[in-house]
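Query structure, 169 tokens:
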């Protein structure tokens, strides 16, 4: 079962918008492996590595993964434990399936640095997404957050939410 706050928000938003929403977990693959002793595996419509099909594909196993909580079976209990123990899980409330959501997130994997080089933007780390939410206040900067209806994560032991393109506690 997904964490209660995620389930409550999923139900509330689904009622409000009268549509099928789903909860996806955005997970650090390396942290998952270190925590559980098992690697995540690609499963159609259930688990998708975001680095698949990119220049960083060799790191796909360790990078960010999207997991459909409704179909992930025992992975959900692992994700709840992992969220409590390590900064490595962000819950997304979305209206897309895993593959569609992965396609929406992939363009945000890299950021151009002032020197013109590209760097991997670790937006699947709750510490990074929290800092990005505080730093990104302009319209175009918030595009990453618009890829999901809501982002939920733990930051310093408190559940945080990014909804409607604005942060709330």
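Result returned for the query:
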């Amino acid at each position: 079962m997904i964490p209660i706050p995620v389930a409550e928000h999923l139900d509330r938003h689904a009622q409000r918008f009268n549509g099928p929403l789903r909860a996806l977990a955005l997970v650090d693959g390396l942290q998952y492996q270190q925590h559980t002793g098992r690697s995540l595996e690609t499963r159609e419509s259930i688990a998708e590595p975001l680095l698949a099909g990119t220049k960083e594909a060799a790191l796909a196993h360790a990078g960010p993964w999207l997991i459909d909580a409704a179909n992930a079976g025992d992975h959900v209990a692992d994700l709840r434990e992992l969220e409590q123990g390590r900064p490595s899980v962000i819950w997304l409330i979305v209206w897309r399936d895993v593959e569609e959501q992965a396609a929406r997130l992939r363009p945000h994997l890299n950021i151009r640095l002032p020197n013109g080089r590209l760097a991997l933007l670790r937006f699947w780390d709750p510490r990074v997404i929290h800092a990005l939410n505080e730093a990104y206040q302009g319209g175009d900067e918030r595009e990453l957050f618009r890829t999901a209806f809501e982002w939920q994560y733990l930051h310093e032991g408190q559940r945080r939410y990014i909804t409607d393109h604005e942060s709330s506690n």
